[in-house]
Amino acid sequence: MKPIHKILSVNADRFACGHYRIIWPDQVINSRHENFQINTLEALPTFPSFYEGISKIKVQRPCSSQHIKYFQWLQEIKNKTNLKVIYEVDDIILSEDIPKYNSNKDFFHSQRENIISLMKYFCDEILTPSVILSEYYKDKTGNNNVSVIPNYVPKIWMDRFFSEEKMLDRYTKSKSKPKILFPVSASHFDYKNKNNGLDDFTHITDLITKTVDDFEWIFFTSYPLSLHKLVTEGKIKCYSFQNIYDYPYIIDKIEPNLIVAPLSDSIFNQCKSDIKLKEACSMGIPSIMQDLAPYKKAFLKFKTGSELADLIKLTLKDESSYINYCKEARSFAEDNWLENEENIGKHIACYTKNDSVPLNNLSYY
Question: Considering Cα of 131, then 137, then 142, then 147, what sign does the dihedral take?
């Protein structure tokens, strides 16, 4: 009889981060493996009997003084059992390396001391989605027990939207004015002018402004302040966010011909994951990514606005080339579904690895 693995996972949000790192992997494992009992919660239980038989606790970016108190309380249970704690973090949350324009910078600055203490003294392992982010936290915390599991798109979430016929139809309908989509959150923009207006889109806003008659530029769910006038005039479209399960349906309804993901060059952005690339590929939509570390596997990469313009023309130059880019994207997606045994197996390995094996430098990448 297989041993029962009792796990506690605690997500900090219900947006993409919480789903990619906690909710979706846990759901897949629970649904496929009877010998797993993963409790996915949004709170940290503080009655000792709850932890009977639990071998691992994975907590998404704990950072408050309340988290410190919880882990101090938990230490007594850890001392009596083989319980291990995993600190799950999918971004840089140390304030000195968060860009000034990012709206989360001030909050994480107020919690910096707590974050460092939790990573150094209270967790057995730090888990990240990229190698470069894992190296960052090793350097910052001195904790070498940092592992990597990339983000993977759930097939059940995004597999139903692609067909060659659909993409050909879109290409034909939008040939005179192609639709180019930016799926992007407000954290990419300097809304409060804390960085003199410089953010992740500064290097391409001139291109967008000059080509509003040539391309249908679409933002989902936020846009740069410098483009506000064009948005209010209806020359640029913006769709508001609903919820994560409606996300692919809204993109499908928008019918974009291309997806673009700009980023400024910073350590914060170098450490990001590649979910924009994987999501675009899952829907069979050709994408043009910023030429930075997260998108090293992207087929089309740009540095400047002029390079982006050239790549847009290249991708859309004719029907045959465009469909080849669509098929190439979709082929990439096939290896990156969360449900693939190799991919979900990395989460299983994280939960089940022999605790007698040193945690140092283990990677599931």
Answer: negative
Mean pLDDT calculated for residue range 187-208 = 97
End-to-end CA distance of the chain: 29
Instruction: Please give the single-letter amino acid code of residue 218.
Output: I
pLDDT digits (tens, 9 = 90+) for 79-125: 999 999 999 999 999 999 999 999 999 999 999 999 999 999 999 99
- Which residues are within 8 A (CB) of 228 and not within 5 positions of it... i.e. 6 or more apart? none
pLDDT at res. 364: 54
Residue 354 scores a pLDDT above 80: no
Burial class (CB in 10 A: 0-12, 13-18, 19+), 117: middle
pTM passes above 0.90? yes
Look at residue 58 and give its three-state secondary structure.
Answer: strand
Query: Edge to edge, what strands does the sheet with 125-128 contain?
Result: 36-41, 5-10, 54-60, 84-88, 125-128, 146-148
Longest dimension (CA), the chain: 69
Give the helix/strand (H/E) hosting 113: helix 112-117
- Pairwise CA distance, residues 189 & 185, whole Å: 8
Please, are residues 288 and 309 in contact by the beta-carbon 8 Å criterion? no
